[in-house]
Amino acid sequence: MALTPFHVAIPVRDLEESRQFYHNVLNCRQGRSSDCWVDFDLYGHQLVIHQDASIGRDGRLRLHHNSVDTHAVPVPHIGVVLEMDDWEALASRLKRKGVKFVIEPYVRFKGQAGEQATMFFYDPTGNALEFKAFKCIDSQLFATD
Q1: Average pLDDT rounded to a whole number, residues 5-20
Q2: Domain limits of the chain?
Q3: pLDDT tens, 121-137?
Q4: What's 1-53's CATH class?
Q5: pLDDT at position 86
Q6: Do domains 1-53 and 63-145 have the same CATH topology?
Q7: In this predicted structure, what is the pLDDT of residue 134?
Q8: For residue 67, what pLDDT band results from cuts at 50, 70 and 90?
Q9: What does UniProt give as the signal peptide span (predicted)?
Q10: Residue 134, Cβ neighbours under 10 Å: how many?
Q11: Class of the 63-145 domain?
Q12: How far is CA 34 from the centre of its chain?
């Protein structure tokens, strides 16, 4: 079966602030929009940001963290699996743009079946984003040993 794009909709505290982040920092192409939501092309997937007036006083979402490879991984999070060259280019661009990482770009599970490059950061509202890459996506994405 061919891989098909996913669709995910997330809340944001400020539509314009988030529009600028996804367009100017992540280089997502904007699609349809209204006064309360915006569609983006996130590496071929449909990401929709929705204005949410109920987000807490500090304007940030509350997240849980789980330990993975000695790092505190934010949950929930959304992300995309990229080709290694695209991941490296994104990591470099994010560093140049001054994005503050929750988990700096690095390779986890070195030497294991699930070896992967990963990085985590938050959007302006606090939605956690992960971008990862494998040397060989087809054989490593779901490898168990």
Answers
A1: 94
A2: 1-53, 63-145
A3: 999 999 999 999 998 88
A4: alpha beta
A5: 95
A6: yes
A7: 92
A8: confident
A9: none
A10: 20
A11: alpha beta
A12: 23
The sheet that has 45-51: what strands, in order across it? 7-12, 45-51, 37-42, 29-33
Tokens matching residue 18: 């988030």
| 24 HSE (CA, 13 A, CB side) | 11
* C-alpha distances in Å from residue 80, one per residue of 8, 43, 54, 83, 129: 12, 8, 27, 10, 9
Dihedral sign of CA atoms 133, 91, 64, 108 in order: positive
